[in-house]
């Protein structure tokens, strides 16, 4: 499993997020810095309009308008970032569909199975893959993977191809025979985890300190 293409699909996900996600985060930081200035500008205009009502009331009104304006701008920016995130990951998914049918995919699938099995902890395990990938996992291949997992976990491991198949772009789900422990290492699950992490980071930047 040491070929150059072994990690191609996983690395493609990371490469896409490195290139596009970092840009999203940089823009979010920049937007966050600009929010206060824009909100103060709106609040000052409102304050001027209500000065006739009295200085104290005007100050309270300014603070309220400032808080409302900041939150509104943040929400608008977040919506734009959310659309960009969806597009970035939508594009990534289409490219990964092609990669999952490439010659390098067989090695990558094996690696993803090993990763999942190590998370489960080894032992007597079932492997679930898409229907077309079953042909890639002969008894000999599963035995070799079992030995690799045993070395990594210190637990004697035996892999069995489940009769169940999954609908996925690629990758695998590995679970204990009892079904009590399961590790989902499909391409979709990896994309979704990265998407959730990115959305959290953008929200954290934009709404830090917001109540």
Automatic annotation (TrEMBL):
Gene name for this UniProt entry: atpE
Alphabetically ordered keywords of this record: ATP synthesis, Cell membrane, Hydrogen ion transport, Ion transport, Membrane, Transport
Name of the molecule in the record: A-type ATP synthase subunit E
Family of the protein in this entry: Belongs to the V-ATPase E subunit family.
Main location: membrane
InterPro entries from the UniProt entry: ATPase_E_C, ATPase_V1_Esu
Domain of life of the native organism: Archaea
Keyword set includes Lipid biosynthesis: no
Residue runs in coiled coils: none
General function of this protein: Component of the A-type ATP synthase that produces ATP from ADP in the presence of a proton gradient across the membrane.
Assembly and binders: Has multiple subunits with at least A(3), B(3), C, D, E, F, H, I and proteolipid K(x).
